[in-house]
Structure prediction request, 217 residues.
Amino acid sequence: MEGSTSKAHNLDAFVTHSRPPPDPLATSQEIRDRSSIFVGSIYHASSPEEAKARMNHLKNVVHGQKRASHEIAAWRCMVLKKDCTGLRGPDDFELTTGYTDDGEKYGGELLGPARFSHIETCTLEVCKEFKRNEELRECIATLRTLDDILADLRAELASLSPEKSSTVTPSSSLAVKKTKPDYSNMDVAKIKRLTQARENAINSIKALLAKRKKAEQ
Prediction:
C-alpha cells in the first residue's frame, strides 16, 4: 500500500458502531521510500462481503485522517455453495478469491520496479507474522484445554477419602484455581514446554487415580 498525505476528514472515524471495530490479525513494519509508505495488514473475513467491509474500514477509518493513494487488497474465503446448507460436510463449501490493485501500477510516486519489491516484502512479512500468531493462539488453546483436564483430575483426586489421599503430594492435590493464568506474553517455545509439563502431570495423576481406584475395589 502506497501512502500519500491528505487532510480529508471522515465522519466514519467518529461514529459509534454497535460492533467493535475489527483489529488486524497481523501488521508488517512500514517501508518508507521517498514520500511513499508501504505497510501490510491481515484481517479476518468469512466472506467476500466481509472482506470488502474490512477494506472500507481500513480506508475510511484507519486511514481516514491520512489517505493512502492506493489500497491494494486480496481475499480468500471458504463460503457455502449455492443452495447448500453446510450440513453435508466439506463438499457444501467452495473457495472464493479476489483482489484489487487500486490502480497501483498507474499512479502515485514514480518509484519504478522498487514499488513491487516493497509490496512483496510487506506481504511476506505480514503473512509470516500471521502464521506465528496463529501458531501461538493454537498452542495457548491446547495448553488451556490441558489446564482444564488437569484441574478436573486434581479435583477428582482430592475427592478421595482422607486416609487414601494422605500420601498425595501438595503439587498434585491443589484445588482448581479460579483465576486462569495469562499466557499472552509468552512465546511459542515456552508454551510448548508448559504443554509438555501439563501432559506429564496428567499422565501421573491418571496413573495415581487408577491405582487408588483399584485399591478400593
